[in-house]
C-alpha cells in the first residue's frame, strides 16, 4: 500500500469509523513475487490505527470466517490478510460462507506446559509443526491461534502469561506488528515483571529476495525447526537447539 493511500485510510476511513473492509493479499513471504510484493508491513501500519480491527487467518476455513466477520462489522473499519498460494488442504463444506467470529478472541489449539507458542496468521501452522517436533523430544507445548492483532485477546494472553514460563509470538510480518502489540500489553499489565519470558519471532529487518517459499522462510528464520530451536535456547538447552537445526532439511 502506498503511504498516500494510508493517509486516505486514516482520514477518510478510520477517523470516520466507516465500516470499510480491507482484504489484503500477499501477506507475509511471497516466493517468486519477491521483495516488492512481500506483505511485511501491513500489520504494523494498520494495527496502529485506533479504530481498525486487524485479523489474520491460520487456514482457509478461518479465512472464510474472517470474511464473514468483516462483513458483520458495521461500526468501524476492519482488515484481514491472507497469503499468496494454496491453503493447507482443509475440506470445506459446499456453500460454506464462514461464521462470524467473536471480535478480539483467539483460540487454544493445543494445551501444554511451560512454553506457549502464540501464532498469528499462517505462522500458526509452523507453530503446530514445531510443537509436534518438540513433542518427540519430550516437550508438550501450548499452541495458540491469536486470530486478532487488534483488539488483542487480553484475557487469553494474561492467562497464558500466568500459567507458562515462556511466551513466544510468531508471525510473518515486520517488527512493530503482532508481537509488538503483545509486548506492549504484557508490559503495561505488569506481566513481564515476574517470571514469564517473552520472545518475538518476526521477519528480519531487511528485504528478502526472490526464492521458493520454503527457502524464504528458512532465510527469515521462521521454519518449524527455527521455532523449536528458539524454544530450546530459551530453556537453556543449547545442545538440543543445535541438534535440531543440524537435522533441518
TrEMBL record:
UniProt record, GO biological process: chlorophyll biosynthetic process; terpenoid biosynthetic process; thiamine biosynthetic process
Gene3D superfamilies: 3.40.50.920, 3.40.50.970
Family: Belongs to the transketolase family. DXPS subfamily.
Protein name: 1-deoxy-D-xylulose-5-phosphate synthase
Listed Pfam families: Transket_pyr, Transketolase_C
Organism per entry: Acer saccharum
A GO term, aspect molecular function: 1-deoxy-D-xylulose-5-phosphate synthase activity
Quaternary assembly: Homodimer.
Pathway(s) this gene product operates in, as recorded in its UniProt entry: Metabolic intermediate biosynthesis; 1-deoxy-D-xylulose 5-phosphate biosynthesis; 1-deoxy-D-xylulose 5-phosphate from D-glyceraldehyde 3-phosphate and pyruvate: step 1/1
SUPFAM superfamilies documented for this protein: Thiamin diphosphate-binding fold (THDP-binding), TK C-terminal domain-like
Domain Transketolase-like pyrimidine-binding: 8-86
EC number: 2.2.1.7
Keywords carried by this UniProt record: Isoprene biosynthesis, Magnesium, Metal-binding, Thiamine biosynthesis, Thiamine pyrophosphate, Transferase
Amino acid at each position: 500500500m502506498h503511504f498516500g493511500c494510508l493517509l486516505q485510510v486514516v482520514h477518510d476511513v478510520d477517523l470516520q469509523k466507516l465500516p470499510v473492509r480491507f482484504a489484503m493479499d500477499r501477506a507475509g513471504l511471497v516466493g517468486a513475487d519477491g521483495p516488492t510484493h512481500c506483505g511485511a508491513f501491513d500489520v504494523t501500519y494498520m494495527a496502529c490505527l485506533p479504530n481498525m480491527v486487524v485479523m489474520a487467518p491460520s487456514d482457509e476455513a478461518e479465512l472464510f470466517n474472517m470474511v464473514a466477520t468483516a462483513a458483520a462489522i458495521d461500526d468501524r473499519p476492519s482488515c484481514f490478510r491472507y497469503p499468496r498460494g494454496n491453503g493447507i488442504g482443509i475440506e470445506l463444506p459446499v456453500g460454506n460462507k464462514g461464521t462470524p467470529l467473536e471480535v478480539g478472541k483467539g483460540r487454544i489449539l493445543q494445551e501444554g506446559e511451560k512454553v506457549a507458542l502464540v501464532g498469528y496468521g499462517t505462522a500458526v501452522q509452523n507453530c503446530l509443526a514445531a510443537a509436534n517436533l518438540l513433542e518427540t523430544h519430550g516437550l508438550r507445548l501450548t499452541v495458540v491461534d491469536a486470530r486478532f492483532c487488534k483488539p488483542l485477546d487480553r484475557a487469553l494472553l494474561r492467562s497464558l502469561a500466568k500459567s507458562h514460563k515462556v511466551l513466544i509470538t510468531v508471525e510473518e510480518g515486520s517488527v512493530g506488528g503482532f508481537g509488538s502489540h503483545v509486548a506492549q500489553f504484557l508490559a503495561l499489565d505488569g506481566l513481564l515483571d515476574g517470571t514469564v519470558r517473552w520472545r518475538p519471532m518476526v521477519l528480519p529487518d531487511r528485504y528478502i529476495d526472490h526464492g521458493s517459499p520454503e527457502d524464504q522462510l528458512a532465510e527469515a528464520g521462521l521454519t518449524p525447526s527455527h521455532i523449536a530451536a528458539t524454544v530450546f535456547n530459551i530453556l537453556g538447552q543449547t545442545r538440543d537447539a543445535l541438534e535440531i537445526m543440524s537435522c533441518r532439511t
